Amino acid sequence: MNTENTPAPQKRENPVRAFLQKKNVRLSPKLYFVDAMGAMALALFATLLMGTILETLGDYTKLDAFMQISAFAKQATGAMLGVAVASALGAPPLVLCSAGVVGLAGYSLGAEFMIGSAEKMLTAGPAGAFFCALVAVELGKLVSKQTKIDILVTPFVTIMSGFLLGLLICPAVAYLMYWIGEFLNTATVMQPIIMGILISVVVGIILTLPISSAAICAMIGISGIAGGAAAAGCCAQMIGFAVISFRENKWSGLVAQGLGTSMLQMGNIIRNPRIWIPATLASAITGPISTAVFGLECTGVDAGMGTCGLVGPLGIITATQEHTLFFWIGLLLVCFVLPALLSLLFSEILRHIGWIHEGDMKLEL
Hints:
Largest sheet: 2 strands, antiparallel
Number of domains: 2
Strand content: under 5%
Radius of gyration: 23 Å
Order of helices and strands: HHHHHEEHHHHHHHHHHH
């Protein structure tokens, strides 16, 4: 039997995979927990964080306009979180708009729990908005433009699926996020040195990774001196990389990393992980100094921003009641001076022993 001219059997495409691809539904951890969470951090910055800054300006200037705008900005947080997640997932217009409702619901839903001897209303906050929007947007994309009454079907499916999911998971999410934050905050008060090191190093590393440290800090509701340690770790990474890479990147690199993000160095870190050591060691020192010596405090999204737009230091100022000379010295040392000096010291040692070489931290700016 002659089989030379017999065509090879064609591999049939998986219809489910083809449909998901057609609807731009990509089951990707990077898309969900890097891109979408990064977009969520921007929404938090534009709403909750800006609202806090405006509220602080209102307190200092006594202008009602700042207080009114602050209230509007904070009220928009949940809705904008949903829109941000939908935008990151490439949602079509109807799904994008409906995601605002889902984000607001996920942000606001929760349940009343007995905390100690008092009953408190706990909401799922940013975590609830994130998970509800994530699922609802993907389901909305699946039904988008599948019927002749798309104008009704798509928003109905998106909103109802997100709301029902919120009713199901938001009480548990609210409770979990509350106790994670409560554990970190309480543990840091009890063990300020050990927890100061751990929180500062871990949150600082998350800041430099392509993950949103601001979103994570907002989700768990980190506050008090635990938030101060997180802010110290983020500042150490950004100021540290800005200073130790100055010989390669000059002033543009100093600004891009010191006021932008140390995430710019991720490509170089993959090529030579040892360049991460100086800033990480600096964060291990500034964290406990922040908690055990100066008692610097910070809250939520501010704690995960570092010196990006000077949000971290401004958050510490906002969260602190008394601005004494001791406080200002601590703020400058922990957020700027010590990260620069310590990172530079460790970097020069590693350059001397050959672990870091000229050009290892060069950025294409």
